[in-house]
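Hello,

I think I submitted the manganese (II) ion job twice by accident. Can you confirm which output corresponds to this input? Input:
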Amino acid sequence: MKQQTFGILGFPWDGGASLGPPGARYAPHAIRENLQWIQNRISDQKIYHVEKRELIDFSNRPIVDYGDIDIVSYSYEQTFKNAELAVSKMLDENSFPFILGGDHSFSYPLIKALHDHCEGNIAIIQFDAHLDLVDENAQQGRFSQSSQIRRALELPRVKAENIVQIGVRNYNYPWYDQYLKEIPIQQITAREVYQTPLDHVLKKILAACEGTEKVYLTFDIDVLDPAFAPGSGGHESGGLTPMQCFELLEGLYPHIDAMDIAEVNPYYDFKGVTTSLAARIVMDCASALTKR
Ligand SMILES: [Mn+2]
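Support: Only one job matched these inputs. Its output is below.
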């Protein structure tokens, strides 16, 4: 069934940023502020999309702000429970959940909410420089910004072959060599995105989603090169360009059921460069969904 509204939900949380710098809790506010600059151009529920040369009409699918998740600073369990309930409510109300993070740990309860809201398998499309498949360790525990995809894999209807990671790069722990041979997670590295026509990349992403009932998209802002997105928690050079991301996302918006933006960190940003990029992505998704 068609989702009737485009719902924005803030998740001002950086309790899982155990190895990265804090500050992502300020992102929902900063992204909304930037979004306002774009939305000021909406008149009579319409806005002109310059690049598509067309009028976008939000009257069929208005943008609704659901406010922020209630944060319980001392308890990720309680906070994640609140997040699950908030997303579940949006799905009940037939609203498309677009969640503004937050450090990346926050995706787990959001994915779980979508998972528990349907009966079939769900796919996860992850734009990220990082793999976030750490099981647990002494410093970070089990629910940090490095583990949310590993936790999602433990959900009964999330299969490794329906997880696709785009833009992963640089170096990581030695155990990944063996782990990634054993587990059929799909990866399209940053280098492969540069070397492959984008429509082929898109086909590969969509192939990983085949046979699933719902698709969750998580967009870690650090998938972009730090030159384009300085306001993030974990910089890895050799990242994607904004246009590569916009193009790929545009091909995915018709297929997804919920989305988040993670790891935007206003403390590390420069003159709102990163938050304005995040706001643009929110707006692109809202615009694309008016067409479904
Ligand atoms: Mn990351």
